[in-house]
Amino acid sequence: MSPADAPARPRLKTRYDAEVRAQLKDELHLTNIMQVPRLEKIVLNMGVGKATQQPSLLEGALRDLEQIAGQKPVVTKAKKSIAGFKLREGNSIGAKVTLRGDRMWEFFDRLVSLAIPRIRDFRGLDPDSFDGRGNYTFGITEQLIFPEIDYDRVDTTRGMDIVIVTTARTDAGGRALLTAFGFPFKREGQ
Question: E strand or H helix at 164, and its extent?
Fold first, then answer.
């Protein structure tokens, strides 16, 4: 395989290696370049609680998640029975996708540059949604913000949770990494 046949590296991955890594090393006062935080994986999780009564909702969620992520999602099952929700152990209640490598970088690029700006009345994401170990979690209310979704084929709007897992050990390191890529955090006073 010649270099001309090799797939192009994702834009943000190239930018991370060329600029962001050295910038973060200086900003976080790290001694070794390998200590600089980087993206590890991105997990998309879509819960479909009404799938117990209407299984076709789960099929639509799987289709949407596959179009958004570019890979086949895994069906998640209930771990225990809850009578109040009419839920039995083993029922299919959602879907998830874990993105790593180049797919993760390309999804992150699309998320920051295309999808998040399409959110209606967007004022920025909460900068306090870190988990204490540098990982960031946020939810979106409808899948229509992604340009891959065909508006005419949507049966119902579905939200999803997006978890960005980093190698940062602290929230400050994770926040610095995401800010370096232009992640739209809410500013003070908004």
Answer: strand 160-166
Distances in whole angstroms, Cα of residue 162 to Cα of each of 10, 34, 86, 131, 180: 20, 26, 27, 13, 19
Half-sphere exposure of 34 (CA within 13 A, CB side): 0
Joined together, the tokens standing for residue 27 give 């900003």
Residues 40, 167 contacting (CB under 8 angstroms): yes
CB–CB of 128/171 below 8 Å? no
CA separation, residue 183 to residues 87, 127, 128, 156 (Å) = 37, 10, 13, 28
Rounded CA separation 123/97 (Å): 27
pTM, two decimals, is: 0.86
Give me the pLDDT at residue 116, please. 85
User: What are the tens digits of pLDDT across the range 157-175?
Assistant: 888 899 999 999 999 999 9
Closest CA to 166 of 176, 151, 158: 176
Rounded to the nearest angstrom, the gap between the alpha carbon of residue 119 and the centroid of all alpha carbons in its chain is: 15
CB proximity list for 155: less than 8 A, separation 6 or greater:
56, 57, 60
Cα 24 from Cα 15, distance rounded (Å): 12
In what order do the strands lie in the sheet containing 136-140? 74-77, 92-99, 39-47, 160-166, 136-140
AA letter at 45:
N
Token output for 87: 């839920």
Tokens describing residue 4: 């001309």
